Amino acid sequence: MTRPHILLVEDETHIAQGLLYNLELEGFQVTHVETGAAALEAFSRRPFDLVVLDLMLPDSHGIDLCHEMRQVAPKLPILMLTALGGEQDRISGLKAGADDYLTKPFSLDELLLRVRGMLRRSAWYQPEYNREEVYSFGGNRIDLKNLQATTAHGEIRLTELEGRMLATFFVNEGETLTRAELLKSAWGMAADTETRTLDNFIVRLRRYFEANPARPQHFLTVRGRGYRFVRQPGRTT
Q1: 13 and 100 co-located in one domain
Q2: 181 and 226 Cβ atoms separated by less than 8 Å
Q3: Do residues 147 and 118 share a domain?
Q4: At what angle do helices 160-171 and 197-209 cross, to 10 degrees?
Q5: Do 105 and 142 fall within a single domain?
Q6: How many whole angstroms separate alpha carbon 115 and alpha carbon 79?
Q7: Which residues pair with 157 in a beta bridge?
């Protein structure tokens, strides 16, 4: 089972070290950053299952950061931490898109309970795929459960995002998926998000699985619409 990946945005070293240690002890994978700029950079590189976000950062305000993340990922669980305990501060955080709010100093047990609860609730909104245990096409063998692939180029260890993208294509085999649908399904991003990351991602899949990436037979571009996965090219129109 893939461990939930948490983005921890906290610049106070003693708090960050304690959270990092205990979250990892609970079995979570954690990426820790200390600034808003570093948080947005990490956020742009890969999807996270939950964000623990400090309100006061050296280069930015957590409210603004929360708002930016929420614009891109509407269903991403965000837990805000702050030393400001006033009602208006809490309301401002929730208005910006935070799902929950903890005031420093806080109980570690309470934070862990909230993190587990938020992850459990967010799972209710994740797309369910009827995944084949092993999916084969074009000489490739894909094990989505264990995120491993056997290709003409050898063995490949897939990332969780690559697994979600492949599962989205496989369950919609033969159908044209728009950029918005792919962004929402695989990345959890808002449907109106514009990004070249998706196009670069398709290039990567073609490099992995196509005999000739320059002339793809499986991961096809539908000009002006999006992309389509074809398992057996000879049987498509």
Answers
A1: yes
A2: yes
A3: no
A4: 80
A5: no
A6: 8
A7: 148
Domain that residue 153 falls in: 135-235
**Collapsed DSSP state (helix, strand, coil) of residue 158:** coil
- pLDDT at 123 (0 to 100): 62
pLDDT value at 124 more than 80: no
* Mean pLDDT, residues 85-90 taken together: 63
- Lookup: tokens for 152: 């003409």
Residues 26-73: tens digit of each pLDDT: 999 999 999 999 999 998 888 888 999 998 899 988 888 888 888 777
In a domain, 128, yes or no: no
The answer as to whether 130 is a domain residue is no
Backbone Cα Rg of the chain: 20
Answer whether 0.90 is exceeded by the pTM: no
Half-sphere exposure of 141 (CA within 13 A, CB side): 5
State how far the alpha carbon of 21 is from the alpha carbons of 27, 28, 31, in Å. Answer: 10, 10, 12
pLDDT bin (cut points 50, 70, 90) of residue 103 is: confident
Residue type, 126: Q
**How would you class 57 by CB atoms within 10 Å of its CB: exposed for 0-12, middle for 13-18, buried for 19 or more?**
buried
Look at the chain and report how many structural domains it folds into.
2
Specify the 3-state DSSP secondary structure of 185: helix
Which residues are CB-neighbours of 219 under 8 A, at least 6 positions away? 169, 202, 205, 206, 209, 210, 227, 229
pLDDT tens digits, 106-120:
888 889 988 988 887
73, with CB counted inside 10 A (0-12, 13-18, 19+), is buried
Of residues 151 and 132, more confidence is placed in 151
* Together in a domain, 142 and 87: no
